[in-house]
Design a protein that fits this description.
two-stranded antiparallel ribbon; disordered C terminus; 41% helix; nine-stranded antiparallel β-sheet; Hypothetical protein af1432; 321 residues
Length: 321
């Protein structure tokens, strides 16, 4: 569950020289992504500690770094730096200032880091994240597969968006929408959601309604149209064969095109009651087969590059990236 704590105690103060208790923090957020503590805050600086779970994402945005250096100190863990396709491990320090594009780090192993920045975005960012992770918690309570699938999809989607150099707003929307794109399945009966054999036509039509249900839930809980629209359209296809509205071509946003590809990919390589997973290679082949008709060519190509690099660099023949 999301937890927010406030408890800030000054131990010693002398002519502007302040000492705080090591366990104190100004505000703390805990959710499925990890634990985040704002340690120091002043008019022109904030310092926070992040303990981030594997499978999550860190995005460094241009608006955070205007005219001021930002510092990330990696204390524990391992990250995958999507932009340059390389790994960053404990002991590394990252700085950024006046970014021209978004930079993305995927959390490979549970990571602890300290961030120092000349900006005050912690509370506003945490507030939006909390709303998203509250929905993720609801998903988890109903279906662990759906939570894992949403996390995998969100992480891959934001990597692709970063490689495509989309705007910072688009990338942030994709990150959050990916995590909750299947939230509409909360409205689907569990006996249908986890049916071990083929669905009837009536049951399949009910499953298809999860896109609209998801849109309604996201609007009700967050009133965020940008997120809700991606959730609504993530099963649309370029040739108009998707659902719920049969959108075609440019009617399908790039955010939803990305979501369509990664959603299908993760579903194919995942084990479900009604089907066995297929290999990563077979899943990529299926995406390429439908590239240009169902799926966006560029999105499929970038996903293929990311997956191949990740698998090759880890020397694993695995079904999961």
């Amino acid at each position: 569950m999301i937890k927010m704590e406030k408890g800030f105690r000054l131990v010693m103060q002398m002519n502007g020289f302040n000492i705080y208790n090591n366990e104190d923090n100004i505000v703390s957020y805990e959710n499925n992504a990890g634990i985040f503590r704002l340690l120091v805050e002043d008019e022109d600086i904030e310092v926070f500690e992040s303990n981030i779970n594997a499978g999550k994402s860190i995005i460094c945005q241009p608006y955070e770094s205007k005219d001021a250096i930002n510092v990330l100190i990696i204390l524990e863990g391992k990250l995958f730096y999507t932009n340059e396709r390389k790994y960053v491990e404990a002991g590394s320090r990252i700085t950024f200032k006046n970014l021209k594009e978004t930079h993305h780090l995927s959390v490979i192993e549970k990571t602890k880091l300290i961030m120092i920045r000349n900006s005050k975005h912690f509370t506003s960012q945490a507030s939006r994240t909390d709303k998203v992770y509250d929905l993720i918690h609801q998903i988890q309570e109903k279906d662990n597969y759906t939570e894992d699938h949403c996390n995998n999809t969100g992480n891959l989607a934001v990597q692709i968006a970063t490689m495509m150099k989309l705007s910072e707003t688009q990338i942030e929307n994709i990150l959050h929408a990916g995590k909750i794109h299947d939230v509409g399945k909360l409205e689907i009966p569990e006996d249908i959601l986890n049916k071990p054999n083929k669905l009837t036509s009536e049951e399949y039509e009910l499953i298809k309604k999860h896109s609209q249900y998801g849109y309604d839930i996201v609007m009700k809980e967050t009133n965020d149209l940008s997120l809700a629209k991606i959730v609504l359209d993530h099963h649309e296809r370029l040739d108009g064969s998707g659902y719920p509205n049969g959108l075609k071509g440019d009617e399908v946003s790039i955010e939803s095109r990305i979501m369509a590809v990664v959603d299908s990919f993760d579903a194919m390589i995942s084990n479900r009651p009604y089907k066995k997973p297929i290999s990563v290679h077979s899943a990529l082949e299926d995406l390429r087969k439908h590239s240009g008709t169902w799926y966006d060519d560029q999105v499929v190509s970038i996903l293929t590059d990311i997956i191949n690099f990740t698998v090759n660099s880890s020397n694993l023949d695995t079904k999961k990236p």
